[in-house]
Specification:
Blueprint: H1 31-40, E1 43-46, H2 51-68, E2 73-74, E3 82-86, E4 106-113, E5 116-122, H3 126-141, E6 150-153, E7 159-163, H4 193-204, E8 209-211, H5 224-237, E9 243-248, H6 252-257, H7 267-283, E10 289-292, H8 309-321, E11 326-330, H9 342-350, E12 361-366, E13 390-395, H10 411-419, H11 431-435, E14 446-450, H12 466-477, H13 483-494, H14 499-520, H15 551-555, E15 561-562, H16 579-586, H17 596-599, E16 602-603, H18 614-638, H19 645-677, H20 692-697
Helix pairs in contact: 2-3, 7-8, 10-13, 12-13, 13-14, 14-18, 18-19
Bound molecules: 4-O-methyl-alpha-D-glucopyranuronic acid.
4-O-methyl-alpha-D-glucopyranuronic acid binds next to loops.
Length: about 700
């Protein structure tokens, strides 16, 4: 269908859709494209048999039937136009080499077999075939060509996981898509269809593991009834190539079995964890391992016993080692009694531990040093621990980027971080190379995304939030993909491959994250959102008990200027980066303006590159963000004829909310910062709609996602 402009008449999109089908809609295509699809998949020939292979062939049948109206037969014999799925084990004479594809990769080739043109999906395992089937279906749905295919694809990163911050009572910390999809109460008996649909969606983008419960963990997850519940989910996910993992609470041995201590060097504690691991592996033989948040935000940990994070991680690692399990130990730490810059604390704690972790431990590091802000420079630990595998933690759920209603596509944020150069081993030492292990030769590699999934029919709280889940999976599989390519794929499958739809949708998406940066935290500002729920602006908040809980700690606005001095004259956080970056970030003149106030306290009348003062530039950034949202509203309105009514209306309404809230962010921020800067607004800029006290008085005790 590429190049064939759809018109509303040819493709009446009036049929309402609720978003449940995600990017796997397999919508009916026009007759000429249906002919192309049928010619390239008129039968499916799969050698071997397994639950995974059955899922792959059924998915192909479902997809082709949806798009063409005809279900291709499963056939034992090769015919012209067949789609073949084979591994070297099932087909020793496989005509395509599978070396280098690993256990999860695949090749898709158009070949001649017995004089017949066929499409062969080849892999070393049935999971690889499943991934290949989804790739072929992506091409089919996106209107791509299906002849002369010669594709090879294998992930460089081993662990591609979702982290659910789901609580056992069904709530989701920082969840904006309804309650948890895990029905813990009725598990293990009732396994509703959501579970296999979840696995299917994840397999389609290459995600291969899921941490089921919140990192703010309850010990109860490790009791026998809850292990049985996790095992039931693992059984559903297994044929999709997805393993389960659990977050654990450090004091579980004390809480569950009355041990006197949780000291990692106490043999009784180690023995408890070993027995617990054995119990879990008995129920879930392919259990992935543990995720740990320790000595962070009130969670207990080894430091409570004067032990290090490495002591704790290694003790747990020993418990799962014999089973092939791993431990993901989070580096998200900062302490109330540490007066140092919060942005420096994780590095200070973990850098000295480099080389001290067991070989089945991987340290999980958030993308930035504070906390999933609209923009943060990459975390200085990336590139700073060469002897330790580090995995990335992104947040797919948008705690700080508009939660469920704002259209802020995260692909560009993920891409910006992955492509950032750490200079750890000279130019080109990107964060992507740190986490895929290629920079230091690590075999244990991983990337995690905090899930944005809940029981809402559309899974993610909005249609456009689905793109963030999709983008995470696609980048985890292949960090070299561009956010724009991914947005295009997603839009083609989610709406239509018609360029009249795809181009405007991709344009909206691509600038949307920068727009949120502009109307929330321009020029390197961070953490200026309101307390607790993090919904909406609160730059004035200053009275909370811990300094680093207050926005004033982060922006440091005063009569002289604004921004956090992280240079030598300030906290010297810049020294945690490799020399070229320490130099770049250390100088106000050359620091990229997007990070200016992250690293520098800058006078209000400082001249930006545009020639305007910092104060005027700040105001203009807020306005640019608001204007971008208004433009998205106009663009979306122009797409009304091409999008089904239900999804059109949801996005239209959410953009209205976003515009209102972008204006609120602009006005509240300007009202507050103007009270500090005492500068007039630049010519042409409207005064905030209300006075500062009005903004301060807004309270949201029931905002979602806040524990
Ligand atoms: C799971 C931030 C969030 C918390 C979250 C924490 C973490 O502080 O606001 O809700 O807790 O990060 O990543 O552990």
């Amino acid at each position: 269908m590429t190049g064939t402009a759809l018109t509303p008449v040819l493709a009446p999109m009036a049929q309402a859709e609720d978003g449940y089908d995600l990017w796997l809609r397999y919508a009916r295509v026009e007759p000429s494209r249906a002919g192309v699809l049928a010619a390239h998949a008129n039968a499916i020939v799969a050698s071997g048999s397994s639950p995974t292979l059955a899922i792959a062939t059924q998915e192909l049948q479902r997809g082709i039937a949806g798009m063409t109206g005809t279900t291709p037969a499963l056939s034992a014999t090769v015919q012209q136009g067949a789609l073949l799925l084979a591994t070297p084990a099932s087909t020793p004479s496989l005509p395509v080499k599978t070396d280098g594809l690993g256990e999860e990769g695949y090749a898709i080739r158009t070949i001649m077999m017995d004089g017949k043109a066929v499409t062969l999906i080849a892999a070393n395992s049935d999971i690889g075939l499943l991934h290949g089937a989804y790739h072929w279906l992506r091409l089919a749905q996106s209107g791509e060509k299906l002849d002369n295919l010669d594709i090879r694809s294998a992930p460089k990163i081993g662990l591609r996981l979702l982290n659910h911050w789901d609580n056992l009572n069904g709530t989701v910390e920082r969840g904006y898509a309804g309650q948890s999809i895990w029905d813990w109460w009725r598990l293990p008996d009732w396994k509703g269809p959501r579970y296999s649909d979840y696995a299917r969606a994840n397999a389609s983008i290459g995600i291969n593991g899921t941490v089921l419960n919140n990192v703010n963990a309850k010990a109860d997850s490790l009791t026998a009834p809850y292990i049985a519940k996790a095992a039931a989910l693992a059984d559903v996910f297994r044929p999709y190539g997805i393993k389960v993992y659990l977050s654990v609470k450090w004091t579980a041995p004390m809480e569950l079995d009355g041990l006197k201590t949780a000291d990692p060097l106490d043999p009784a504690v180690a023995a408890w964890w070993k027995a617990k691991a054995d119990e879990i592996y008995k129920a879930i033989p392919d259990f992935g391992g543990f995720l740990v948040k320790a000595n962070s935000e009130g969670q207990p940990g080894p430091q409570d016993y004067n032990r290090t994070h490495a002591d704790g991680a290694n003790m747990l690692a020993a418990a799962v080692k014999a089973h092939g399990g791993i431990v993901m130990w989070r580096a998200f730490v900062y302490a109330h009694d540490n007066p140092d810059d919060r942005a420096k604390q994780a590095y200070s704690d973990f850098k000295p531990l480099d080389g001290k972790f067991a070989d089945n431990v991987i340290v999980q590091v958030k993308n930035g040093a504070i906390d999933f802000q609209p923009r943060e420079p990459f975390h200085p630990l990336f590139g700073a621990m060469p002897r330790t595998p580090l995995m990335m933690e992104f947040q797919i759920t948008k705690e700080y980027l508009g939660q469920s209603t704002h259209l802020t596509y995260l692909g560009p944020l993920f891409e910006e971080v992955l492509d950032a150069d750490t200079y750890a081993k000279g130019k080109g030492s990107t964060v992507a190379k740190v986490i895929d292990g290629s920079l230091e030769g690590h075999k244990l590699t991983g990337i995690a995304g905090v899930a944005n999934i809940g029981v809402d029919r559309d899974w993610s709280g909005s249609i456009f939030n689905q793109a963030d889940w999709y983008a995470f999976g696609r980048l985890a599989w292949d960090t070299s993909l561009s956010a724009e390519t991914i947005a295009k794929e997603w839009a083609e499958m989610t709406f239509s491959p018609d360029p009249k739809v795809v181009q405007p949708v991709v344009r909206m998406m691509m600038g949307s994250r920068e727009a949120a940066v502009d109307y929330m935290t321009p020029l390197g500002l961070a953490h200026v959102m309101d307390t607790g729920h993090h919904y909406g602006p609160g730059p004035w908040v200053s009275e909370l008990a811990r300094p680093e809980w207050n926005p004033v700690y982060y922006h440091k606005a005063d009569a002289t200027g604004i921004g956090f001095d992280r240079t030598k004259t300030g906290s010297n956080a810049v020294s945690q980066y490799a020399a070229p970056l320490a130099k770049l970030f250390g100088s106000v003149k050359i620091t990229p303006e997007r990070d200016l106030l992250w690293f520098h306290h800058v006078p209000w009348d400082y001249r930006l590159k545009s020639g305007e003062t910092l104060w005027n530039g700040l105001v203009h950034h807020y306005e640019a963000g608001v204007n971008y949202v208004a433009d998205m509203q106009t663009t979306w309105a122009s797409l009304k004829p091409y999008v089904d009514a239900e999804r059109y209306a949801q996005t239209e309404t959410f953009l209205t909310i976003q515009h209102r809230e972008a204006l609120w962010w602009r006005d509240a921020s300007i009202a507050y910062f103007q009270s500090v800067s005492q500068r007039p607004l630049p010519a042409g800029s409207a005064a905030p709609a209300h006075d500062l006290n009005w903004y301060k008085a807004q309270k949201f005790p029931y905002a979602p996602g806040h524990n």
